[in-house]
């Protein structure tokens, strides 16, 4: 893995997730996070990968949760709402026959 700075691994992580998931959908889950996580999130969105920010976990996740307008691929669920998190993961990974997600990924806390 090239790079000497913390965070240089971000493109490699996104590429690995894409390769491992092959023809299947994948999702990025953000818990807490800082500047490196911001890079990971931006790369995930660039690849069209949905992101679930778990609010109440601190820093970047909470900052994204408070943002009234965000990328349509970003969903937010409170850390105490386990079923909501599960539902968002299921929605992000489920597609119908035409390749369209079965439900909107736009959500609020």
Question: How are the elements arranged and paired?
Answer:
Elements: H1 10-21, E1 28-31, H2 35-46, E2 51-55, H3 59-66, E3 74-78, H4 82-93
Parallel strand pairs: 1-2, 2-3
Helix pairs in contact: 1-2
Task: Give a brief outline of the structure.
The protein is α/β, with parallel strands linked by helices. It is 40% helix and 13% strand. It is built from 4 helices and 3 strands, in the order αβαβαβα.
Task: Note down, in words, how this protein is organized.
It is a single chain. By secondary structure, the protein is an alpha/beta fold. It has one domain. It contains four helices and three strands; from the N terminus they run αβαβαβα. The chain has helices at residues 10-21, 35-46, 59-66, 82-93, and strands at residues 28-31, 51-55, 74-78. The protein has a three-stranded parallel β-sheet, sandwiched between helices. Helix 2 (35-46) links the parallel strand 1 (28-31) and strand 2 (51-55). Helix 1 packs across helix 2. It is globular. It starts with 9 loop residues before the first helix and ends in a 16-residue tail after the last helix.
């Amino acid at each position: 893995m090239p790079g000497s700075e913390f965070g240089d691994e971000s493109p490699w992580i996104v590429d690995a997730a894409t390769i491992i998931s092959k023809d299947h959908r994948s999702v990025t889950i953000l818990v807490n996070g800082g500047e490196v996580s911001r890079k990971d999130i931006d790369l995930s969105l660039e690849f069209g990968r949905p992101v679930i920010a778990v609010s109440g976990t601190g820093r970047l996740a909470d900052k994204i949760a408070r943002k009234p307008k965000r990328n349509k691929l970003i969903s937010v669920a409170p850390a105490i709402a386990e079923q909501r998190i599960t539902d968002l993961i299921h929605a992000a990974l489920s597609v119908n026959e035409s390749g369209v997600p079965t439900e909107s990924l736009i959500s609020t806390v």
